[in-house]
């Protein structure tokens, strides 16, 4: 006989009903026990609270608890207020357009803050875009003016941001250096010349294998980069610099504008249109040799402050090359070694005058383009072979050395420039201006470019494209080559000193000519010894005609006969 059907055997998804009933009964019982314990505790407190000492103790404990609670709540509110003020800064994770809008709204509210782009997850600056509708997004170059009298190169308009906006867009983080993360430099106490392939005591004598290995981009590299005979550049390395100047250069940890004059070849040009912020934060360094220093002191332009306007003069001694042009390549290409803590640099040849604020230049040609190296194309030539022939025709360097360098590059695969190299617009730079960020990959490019100049001719336009193309074939080097007319917008080219001296007017006017002589007095024999005859000056210039000379004849008796 089957067991009678009951609700206890009914099951469900959350367990059997009988267990649920049992669990409910047990929970009620435990709840009743807890309530009884609370009642006993309350009765116990009331029993002892009536006593004087115990009551006072309870009151003190309750007062202390209330005080701690009030203090904790008040502190929390203060911290929230403090966080509200701090959070006014732009969250670096917002987009560029949102940041610009928030920045303008904050400035309108009377608050001042710096627009800083957020470090991406990789910890690098990855560029930005100007907000939609910005005038620079639709900026195009106008056609050149129809001036038939001026056919040479000329400046063209450039869309710069205002100085304050450019300063606000300075990246807080460095740009990425593809593949290469750690770059160190060769130091040789005793120079090795085994298997050398060009070079010098200053730059070392790397072999052809070492040269080829230096183009194999790796995560960590050690390359020749000048100053091989000393641990610290400028100290017993050739191109030696005083300790005080080395210390000053180490303090430059932001933007550097540098130039050089060797052999007293140029005149120092004072930068113009420089903002107060740049005057305070940018290092303006002018490298000179002892010959130029002597002239600056004797002419009264250089005093004990070592400054001429914005420029701080840095005297280089024990120069490694007799050629001033080759010596000038040291601060031009190895500036990252001389100013090791700088983030950005702008190089200007000594003949140039800077007329735009450095932060505007960096924003336009580096940050907005997301580039780490920027240089202008040559205004006329874009092919290395044509550039080499132009150098030979102008006598810029020994022709045989230029031919040897070109032949070597041809064997490595150098070909004439064609449109197949686009978007690279030229193989020949106008190397008088270099704008760059000091990150490992751009520093490597500068080192290898200098090594070619040290190994072959000092004409850096010839070796530029070879170094650039070898690096670009291996890594995504953020490189920007801009138009020559854009370069001429922010620098003005002046004449070299020797040409200025030839063009200069005479220092003082020539001395006045002496007065004409007094008339000569003669004695007439007819009028006696005491009767003078006045003789006027003869005819001159246009008054004297060919074939009209008057020949005076004297006859007997002392009378003069006029010619018929």
UniProtKB/TrEMBL annotation:
UniProt keyword annotations, A-Z: Membrane, Transmembrane, Transmembrane helix
Comp. bias regions, Pro residues: 506-519
Residue ranges occupied by any TOD1/MUCI70 glycosyltransferase-like domain in the UniProt entry: 183-496
Region (Disordered): 506-564
Cited Pfam families: TOD1_MUCI70
Segments passing through the bilayer: 54-74
Composition bias type Basic residues, residue spans: 536-554
InterPro entries for the chain: TOD1_MUCI70, TOD1_MUCI70_glycTrfase_dom
Protein name: TOD1/MUCI70 glycosyltransferase-like domain-containing protein
Organism: Glycine soja
Phylogenetic placement of the source organism: Eukaryota, Viridiplantae, Streptophyta, Embryophyta, Tracheophyta
């Amino acid at each position: 006989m089957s067991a009678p059907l009951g609700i206890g055997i009914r099951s469900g998804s959350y367990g059997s009903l009988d267990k649920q009933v049992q669990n409910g009964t047990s929970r009620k019982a435990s709840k009743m026990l807890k309530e009884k314990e609370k009642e006993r505790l309350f009765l116990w407190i009331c029993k002892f609270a009536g006593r004087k000492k115990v009551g006072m103790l309870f009151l003190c404990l309750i007062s202390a608890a209330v005080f701690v609670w009030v203090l904790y709540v008040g502190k929390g509110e203060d911290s929230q207020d403090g966080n509200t003020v701090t959070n006014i800064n732009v969250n670096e994770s917002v987009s560029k357009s949102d940041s610009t809008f928030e920045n303008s709204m904050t400035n309108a509210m009377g608050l001042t803050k710096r627009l800083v782009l957020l470090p991406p997850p990789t910890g690098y600056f990855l560029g930005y875009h100007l907000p939609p509708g910005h005038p620079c997004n639709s900026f195009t170059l106008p056609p050149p003016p129809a001036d038939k009298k001026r056919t040479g190169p000329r400046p063209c308009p450039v869309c710069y941001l205002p100085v304050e906006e450019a300063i606000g867009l300075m990246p807080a983080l460095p740009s990425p250096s593809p593949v290469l993360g750690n770059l160190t430099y060769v130091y040789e106490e005793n120079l090795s010349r085994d298997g050398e392939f060009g070079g010098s005591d200053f730059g070392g004598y790397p072999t052809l294998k070492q040269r080829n290995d230096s183009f194999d981009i790796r995560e960590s590299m050690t390359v020749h980069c000048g100053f091989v005979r000393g641990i610290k550049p400028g100290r017993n390395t050739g191109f030696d610099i005083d300790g005080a100047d080395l210390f000053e250069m180490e303090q430059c940890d932001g933007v550097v504008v540098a130039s050089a004059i060797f052999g007293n070849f140029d005149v120092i040009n004072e930068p113009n249109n420089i903002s107060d912020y740049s005057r305070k934060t940018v290092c303006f360094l002018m490298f000179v040799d002892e010959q130029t220093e002597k002239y600056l002191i004797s002419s009264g332009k250089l005093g004990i402050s070592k400054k001429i306007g914005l420029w701080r003069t840095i005297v280089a001694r024990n120069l490694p090359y007799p050629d001033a042009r080759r010596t000038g390549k040291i601060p031009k290409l190895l500036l990252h070694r001389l100013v090791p803590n700088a983030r950005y640099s702008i190089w200007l040849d000594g003949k140039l005058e800077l007329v735009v604020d450095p932060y505007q230049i960096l924003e336009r040609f580096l940050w907005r383009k997301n580039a780490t190296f920027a240089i202008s194309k040559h205004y006329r030539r874009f092919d290395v072979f044509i550039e080499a022939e132009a150098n030979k025709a102008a006598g810029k360097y020994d022709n045989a050395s230029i031919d040897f360098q070109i032949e070597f590059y041809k064997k490595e695969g150098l070909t004439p420039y064609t449109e197949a190299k686009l978007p690279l617009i030229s193989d020949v730079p106008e190397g008088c201006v270099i704008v760059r960020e000091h990150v490992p990959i751009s520093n490597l490019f500068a080192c290898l470019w200098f090594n070619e100049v040290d190994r072959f001719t000092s004409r850096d336009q010839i070796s530029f494209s070879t170094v650039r193309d070898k690096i670009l074939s291996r890594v995504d080097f953020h490189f920007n080559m801009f138009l020559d007319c854009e370069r001429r917008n922010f620098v003005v080219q002046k004449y070299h000193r020797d040409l200025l001296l030839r063009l200069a007017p005479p220092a003082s006017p020539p001395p006045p000519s002496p007065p004409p002589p007094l008339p000569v007095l003669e004695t007439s024999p007819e009028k006696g010894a005491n009767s003078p005859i006045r003789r006027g000056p003869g005819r001159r210039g246009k008054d004297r005609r060919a074939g009209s000379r008057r020949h005076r004849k004297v006859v007997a008796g002392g009378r003069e006969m006029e010619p018929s």
